[in-house]
From TrEMBL:
Name by which UniProt lists this protein: Importin N-terminal domain-containing protein
Segments passing through the bilayer: none
Region (Disordered), start-end ranges: 945-982, 1032-1055
Lineage start: Eukaryota, Fungi, Dikarya, Ascomycota, Pezizomycotina
Compartments it resides in: Nucleus
Record's compositionally biased regions (Acidic residues): 962-974
Length: 1055
């Protein structure tokens, strides 16, 4: 069978898609064959087989294990047909491969992953020998075998152990890897792997700590006491000889210099990462060594600065951000980033804060004794210098520069880390900007300073100014002017574009942060920016000025607003004209910057844009950025601001706006262009919905004649769901603002009246051929039509319309679509609840979800009510349901619907595959009880705006602060570790609706609900329902009067 399996594995690597898919399908069909996994292991074990084919065998084995090994694995699909004997053989065979001598690293890594997955299901019950076997191998393993053992141990710690399993083996495991880490005879990478495993232990240890604090404290204290001296020894270890560029380019693994250099960096990096993990999770463990650690890391950063500049900011272009096959970083830039981040962590500790506070007393400041902060800033400037590689990339692609400037890049560098470090200094309100001035002056006055050094100074200054601005504080005019001199020097530098760009950026930040003292300079600097956008040869300078211009436009004197709006629009238009717009369409960051700048120019006085081509320029950018979600959002926000402002000025202004924009927008809706994916068409429909939303009453003459025929045709084409939604919303708002114009209009081509066209549109959207997403807004359109036209105009079509809504509701699945359709009946129930129920009782819905219309609608309504969103929707829904309740209609008592979740007595987390096999079970209850439960759930819990909330919060805080045990352990607050399991648990806990329910009703709705329950509380029917509620629901009713402070004499039944 081995040859058959090997042939299939080879076929899975074939470049032909059909051949690959066929081979993978045949492999999956072999999953139930006991010999199949044994054959895979045999293929992997034969070193004569090509490496890529052995890897393919391991990949196939991994898939088999994940899908068929155990139901406890999240990806399990079944069936679990492997015998215990086969599983025993596979466990030992795969472990042997993962820990084999002289095995390929890629094979070891893949095999160890399979081992960890099997272990997560079988250890220790079905595989009790696993950990003892690994731990016994460590002391006697040769270097290649030790590597495999450590990789398996690392995967086990990260993915294979739960808290109980880890607790029973933690002491032996930590002792074993400690012996590897401190053994100077072992390879650097083996020692680094050992430290990495120790760091991974902390994630699981933190979970154990939640349930067993005392023993974990003791264990972690002993471990910390043992490991800390070793960590400090590694940190103080001098760096070996730095290999030359030629030596590093010789390939992997390289000569002895390269191996030594990379190995030391790998070990140091893992040590810093481990220390950072300890300080963030268990800060008390390292309190006594905080000062020593800070000094050691700081000396290390100072020592690394020279090699860092040589390798990354000078003429050499060493490869950075490199990891080996075991994901161990081994380049200097990675180590620098970890050290800078750890310095931030240490700045959180009270020990370091006290030391810095002592240095920043008035006496120390007067004597100039601010050594630490000055050194931190100097080093931050040093590591903020632009990398040679980045400078070249920015010149080629200005989008990369913009993503760095807006901190929207995944490329976290030492420069970014320095920005965070400076921000941390500012967060403690230390006089960072004042201390930085002297260092900045020394750099700019030094004739030998490179442009990168000057640019780095200004970069750090900008980070400080941003922090000051975030804290809503200002800097003095004298200080601002001193820094402004440096910015001017940079702006006038004719040799380097990056320094010039930074000068413009910092000048803008200074004028903004200095407050009104420098606002008078804004017009002059804005003009210089406009000039640079038009004349500077550098794209980096141009886009920097575009971004800076946004800040100037917000603080310009009103008297200059019109002048600068016109100039900015012209400048952006010229910029677009001088570039290939097809290239700009692929430059999302640049396009977003252009739209943002145009938006800020327009918003200086939106009414002025009717006098010049600002909106035409906006639509041009929209057409080329239509594939970008952010660009489209910015365009929509800008147009909404313009439309709302102009509409508020009266019908005449709104009519002028329509006259200006409708030709462009409707021109994009030509049916031929739509089917050819006209770039502006999707955006145009969305903009039209905004235009209609803020329409005047009545709408301008001819508005319906211009739009309705085009919207009608769009809605009968198979287009993106967003187009259908926006078109439906547009028609709805036309009805809201001027139904008369729709009803009076007749299509000259077809002779159909406006009312008939709207009915045809609703019928089309509610039909079976339109999906939920495309029809999501039809409910709002339908209810507007019913309310505006009334039974008199609709005649027999009214009942047909409501019947179609009920039928479509029976099959609706998307939450927003369900809400939209339910609100049709809810809106009608506000005034005619009985008529609605009578009508629904006469409707018959066919299909799997069928029954009477009353059954279908009430079930769907009540099962989804708690998911409704929007103040108006929730208010209308609540009032409609109370109106239905007050009818006490006996027909509702005969309808059964989904009740409460039946809680399973299990402590295990249900995986996705298990949830599919074992869906949640719910009780079945009558509609009146479900309706009551829904209304009780709509009662708001105490919130920050609810009386009693602050009192409760204060009590909780007081209780928290009185916990001596926790205070003693936690020491001081630290940086949030998003990778920690308990952090993930807390974040998931925040998603609990009972704690953070953003779906809130307004105060009037709450008062209405309380009054409703008080009024019905003594009714015999309610007494019966009350006793069928859960304890939590009854408790909520008892507390509602205190929570909402509603005056009333009604009483809720006593418990």
């Amino acid at each position: 069978m081995e040859q058959q399996v090997l042939d299939l594995l080879v076929a899975t690597l074939d470049p032909s898609g059909p051949i690959r898919n066929d081979a993978e399908r045949h492999l999956e069909q072999l999953y139930t064959n006991e010999a199949f996994p044994i054959s895979l292991v045999s293929i992997v074990s034969h070193k004569s087989v090509l490496l890529q084919h052995r890897q393919a065998a391991l990949l196939s084995l991994k898939k088999l294990v994940l899908k068929t090994w155990s139901p406890s694995l999240e990806e399990f699909e079944g069936p679990n047909t492997l015998s215990d004997a086969t599983k025993d053989q596979l466990r030992e065979s795969v472990l042997s491969i993962a820990t084999a001598i002289d095995e390929e690293r890629k094979i070891v890594g893949a095999a160890s992953y399979v081992v960890s997955k099997i272990a997560s299901a079988d250890f220790p019950e079905q595989w009790p020998t696993l950990l003892p076997t690994l731990l016994n191998l460590v002391p006697q393993a040769d270097p290649s075998q030790l590597h495999g053992v450590l990789v398996v141990l690392g995967n086990l710690v990260e993915d294979g152990f739960d808290e109980e399993q880890f607790s029973s083996s933690a002491i032996d495991l930590v002792k074993c890897i400690y012996n590897v880490a401190v053994d100077g005879e072992k390879k650097w990478t083996a020692r680094a792997l050992a430290v990495s495993i120790f760091r991974a232990c902390f994630d699981t240890m933190e979970l154990v700590y939640q349930n067993n604090k005392a023993s974990v404290k003791q264990f972690m204290q002993e471990a910390s006491d043992a490991w800390s001296p070793f960590f400090i020894e590694v940190l103080k270890m001098p760096m070996p000889y730095m290999p030359s560029e030629e030596e590093e380019n010789q390939g992997t693994p390289g000569g002895p210099n390269v191996i030594n250099w990379r190995g030391v960096i790998a070990l140091k990096t893992q040590v810093v990462k481990a220390l950072d993990k300890i300080h963030n999770m268990f800060p008390h463990l390292l309190s006594a060594r905080t000062l020593e650690l800070f000094s050691t890391i700081w000396e290390s950063l100072q020592a690394h600065l020279g090699p860092y500049h040589t390798m990354y900011t000078g003429d050499e272009q060493r490869q950075g951000r490199m990891e080996d096959a075991d994901r161990l970083p081994y380049t200097l830039d990675f180590l620098i980033i970890e050290e800078l981040d750890y310095i931030q962590t240490l700045l959180n500790t009270t020990t370091i804060k006290w030391e810095l506070d002592a240095q920043l007393t008035p006496k120390s400041m007067a004597s100039g004794n601010v050594t630490w902060i000055m050194q931190i800033l100097a080093v931050a400037v040093g590591y903020s210098q632009i990398l040679t590689e980045d400078a070249e990339l920015w010149e080629v692609d200005v989008n990369i520069f913009l993503s760095e400037e807006t901190s929207e890049t995944a490329n976290y560098s030492a420069r970014n880390a320095c920005g965070g470090l400076v921000g941390k200094l500012c967060s403690y309100k230390w006089p960072v900007i004042e201390i930085l001035l002297g260092f900045s002056k020394s750099v700019f006055d030094d004739g030998s300073s490179s442009f990168k050094a000057k640019e780095a100074v200004l970069y750090v200054v900008k980070q400080v100014l941003d922090e000051i601005s975030d804290y809503d504080t200002k800097i003095g005019p004298d200080l601002a002017n001193a820094y402004l001199d440096f910015a001017r020097m940079a702006m006038q530098d004719g040799e380097n574009e990056l320094l010039r760009a930074r000068g413009f950026i910092v000048a803008g930040a200074l004028i903004r942060t200095a407050g009104e003292a420098l606002h008078g300079l804004a017009p002059d600097f804005a003009l210089q920016s406009l000039k640079a956008i038009g004349e500077d040869e550098s794209e980096v300078v141009k886009v920097s000025c575009l971004r800076v211009l946004q800040g100037y436009l917000k603080i310009l004197p009103p008297a200059r607003a019109q002048e600068f709006q016109v100039q900015t629009v012209a400048t952006i238009s010229n910029f677009l004209s001088s570039h290939d717009l097809s290239e700009i369409s692929d430059s999302e960051d640049l396009l977003d910057t252009l739209v943002e700048t145009l938006r800020d120019a327009i918003m200086t006085d939106p009414s002025l844009c009717l006098e010049h081509p600002a909106l035409d320029v906006l639509f041009t950018m929209a057409s080329f950025g239509s594939r970008s979600w952010t660009t489209t959002m910015l365009v929509n926000e800008t147009f909404e601001s313009v439309t709302s402002t102009i509409s508020s000025q009266g019908p005449e202004s709104y009519a002028r706006l329509c006259a200006k924009v409708l030709p462009s927008l409707t021109g994009a809706l030509d049916v031929g262009d739509m089917t050819q994916e006209n770039s502006l068409s999707d955006v145009a429909v969305s903009l039209l919905s905004t235009l209609a939303e803020y329409g005047s009453v009545p709408l301008p003459e001819g508005f319906v004649a211009t739009l309705l025929p085009k919207l009608y045709r769009l809605l009968f084409l198979d287009l993106e769901f967003s187009v259908h939604q926006s078109a439906t919303i547009t028609i709805k708002y036309i009805l809201v603002h001027d139904a008369t114009q729709i009803f009076a209009w007749r299509d000259p081509e077809t002779g159909k009246e406006g009312l008939e066209i709207v009915l045809l549109i609703i019928d089309r959207l509610l039909g079976p051929n339109v999906d939920d997403s495309s029809a999501a807004e039809v409910g709002g359109l339908a209810v507007e039509l019913v309310e505006k036209a009334g039974a008199e105009k609709l005649g027999p079509y009214l009942m047909q319309l409501l019947q179609v809504v009920a039928i479509r509701l029976s099959t609706a699945e998307r939450a927003n679509f369900i809400q939209n359709l339910v609100l049709v009946f809810a809106r009608l129930s506000l005034t005619n609840a009985k008529d609605v129920l009578d009508f629904l009782a006469q409707v018959q819905v066919d299909g799997a979800h069928g029954g009477s219309g009353l059954e279908v609608v009430m079930r769907k309504w009540l099962e989804n009510s708690v998911n409704f969103s929007g103040y108006d929707a929730i208010r209308q829904n609540v009032i409609a349901l109370t109106n239905i309740y007050k009818l006490h209609d006996e027909r509702l008592a005969n309808i059964q619907t989904k009740g409460d979740l039946v809680v399973q007595n299990s402590t295990h987390i249900k995986t996705r595959s298990q949830a599919k096999r074992e869906p949640d079970q719910f009780s079945v209850i009558p509609v009146p009880l479900k309706l009551t439960k829904v209304l009780v759930q709509e009662l708001a819990l105490p919130s920050p705006t609810t009386p009693g909330f602050s009192h409760g919060l204060g009590k909780k805080a007081k209780e928290s602060s009185s916990s001596d045990e926790d205070d003693e352990w936690e020491d001081e607050p630290t940086v949030l570790d998003l990778g920690a399991p308990t952090t993930r648990q807390d974040l998931m806990g925040h998603m609990d609706e009972s704690r953070w329910n953003t779906r809130q009703t307004d105060d009037d709705t709450q008062k209405y609900l309380v009054e409703f329950f008080n009024n019905v509380s003594n009714e015999p029917g309610f007494q019966e329902l009350y006793h069928s509620l859960t304890d939590e629901e009854r408790e909520k009713l008892h507390k509602m009067n205190d929570t909402n402070q509603v005056n009333g004499n009604g009483q809720v039944p006593a418990q």
